[in-house]
Amino acid sequence: MNENTVEIRGVTVLAKANVYFDGKVVSHTMLLADGTRKSVGVIFPGRFHFGTAQAERMEITAGDCEVTLDGKPGLNRYAAGQQFEVPAKSGFDIEVITGRVEYVCTFF
What we know:
Mean pLDDT: 94
Distance between the termini: 28 Å
Largest sheet: 7 strands, antiparallel
Helix content: under 10%
CATH superfamily: Jelly Rolls
Number of helices: 0
CATH architecture: Sandwich
Shape: globular
Number of domains: 1
Order of helices and strands: EEEEEEEEEEE
Oligomer: single chain
Low-confidence stretches: none
Strand content: over 45%
Number of strands: 11
């Protein structure tokens, strides 16, 4: 395992991929024993908008991106080891300029 590896024990992974934006964003859903739902995925270069019914935390595990939260001024840059939170019934724009971003998303 490399230094950016995140290990999550005791999960069920749904084999069916969540594919968005013509394959430029791909994730898999994970269900933890305590009922927590997470997704783990990859975002390729581009700018994308996501809406969310539930609050969520996006943990960047590889790469870097620029994020603007709905209703909040300013653009924020996040890299591996950083995270941001999105309020329920909200959304965000995320842009990957080069390479790819890998992430773990936790839903609350």
